[in-house]
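lol forgot to send this yesterday, sorry. struct tokens for the thing we talked abt
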């Protein structure tokens, strides 16, 4: 479907200082009034502008901490009046919206598990009608841009103007070092379609681990994101949810002060985005190449087993000549030189022989 370019108020229309990065920090979950106030008072001294805390927590498994519920909203109200920080929490249904607005939460966010579901988004939009509260939309769990755009469009149709997107990574079937694979090309595509939409990165949920938060935050800055949402706790290891990915307010400061901000990007406009797109294509192709090489070696093992059972020798030079001739021929059709094909296929063939030799000797 052809995407219409939408207009969005800027973060300064939300009453924020737009010096990059605009920082949202605070615990994954509000746990106790003391915990919330302790963290908020420390963050008041930092460059954090928005205090986050989950009140209703979506958890993968039942029986884990599911949030303190409505009583936590009173604590957020206290944060607001005693620190001057703006507050934000996640809403996942209409009742959450009514309650959060009733207690004066400044900004709402829609979580990854909600963005995927147009029925719930509609229900939330219905509850938001007639308000002008800013809403941040996390990317959907599945690696697709369409549901993300869809949720944003539904909010606009409901009359919500102040909208931002939060990139928190995507679930992925293959193992990666991240809890949620960043798939940078998806937020880049969102930004291509909607250049005015403010964009935050949530490195905590991408990494699942506090070690790489600095690295991902830097990357987000290099891609010209407007802000960061970083889970921050006074005692991260004892947090009731997402303990591994939270940092202390001191560590948050260290991460923020080590960021290098390249204001206009390393080249002409769009250069960084285009490069990132191309690099992610290369990463996907490399992955495919490796899958194919792995499958080729499995077939080579089968050939080894077959030769062993039939008492046939491994190296059959005629066959190898045929492979090479055929591949050089096919390579030409793809603009690949004979020299390159010979190099690659010699290495592949050698590895096949090694595999077959191992099988012969077992
Ligand atoms: C969170 O921010 O704590 C959270 C649950 O987020 P997500 O929807 O990204 O999982
Ligand atoms: Mn969390």
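and heres what i got for the seq, position by position
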């Amino acid at each position: 479907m052809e995407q219409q370019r939408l207009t969005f108020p800027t973060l300064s229309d939300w009453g924020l200082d737009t010096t990059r990065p605009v920082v949202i920090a605070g615990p994954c979950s509000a746990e106790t009034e003391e915990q919330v106030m302790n963290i908020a008072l420390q963050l008041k001294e930092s460059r954090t502008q928005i205090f986050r805390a989950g009140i209703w927590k979506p958890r993968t498994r039942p029986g884990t901490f599911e949030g303190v519920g409505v009583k936590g909203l009173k604590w957020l109200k206290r944060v607001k009046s005693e620190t001057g920080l703006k507050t934000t929490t996640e809403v996942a249904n209409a009742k959450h919206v009514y309650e959060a607005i009733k207690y004066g939460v400044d900004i709402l966010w829609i979580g990854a598990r909600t963005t995927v579901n147009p029925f719930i988004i509609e229900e939330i939009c219905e509850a938001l009608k007639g308000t002008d509260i800013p809403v941040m939309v996390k990317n959907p769990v599945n690696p697709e841009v369409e549901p993300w755009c869809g949720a944003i469009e539904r909010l606009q149709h409901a009359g919500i103007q102040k909208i931002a997107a939060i990139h928190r990574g995507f679930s992925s079937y293959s193992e990666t070092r991240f809890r949620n694979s960043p798939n940078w090309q998806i937020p880049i595509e969102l930004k291509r379609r909607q250049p005015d939409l403010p964009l935050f990165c949530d490195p905590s949920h991408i990494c699942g681990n506090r070690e790489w938060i600095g690295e991902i935050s830097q990357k987000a800055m290099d891609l010209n994101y407007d802000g960061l949402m970083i889970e921050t706790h006074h005692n991260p290891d004892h947090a009731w949810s997402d303990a591994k990915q939270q940092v202390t307010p001191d560590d948050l400061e260290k991460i923020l002060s080590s960021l290098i901000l390249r204001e206009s990007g390393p080249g002409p406009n769009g250069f960084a985005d285009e490069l990132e797109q191309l690099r992610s294509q290369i990463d996907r192709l490399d992955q495919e190449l490796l899958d194919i090489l792995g499958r080729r070696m499995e077939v080579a093992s089968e050939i080894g087993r077959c030769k062993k059972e039939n008492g046939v020798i491994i190296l059959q030079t005629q066959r190898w000549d045929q492979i090479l001739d055929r591949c050089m021929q096919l390579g030409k059709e793809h603009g690949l030189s004979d020299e390159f094909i010979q190099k690659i296929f010699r290495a592949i063939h050698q590895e096949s022989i090694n595999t077959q030799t191992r099988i012969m000797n077992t």
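The first strand starts at residue 22 and ends at 26. anyway ping me if u want another try
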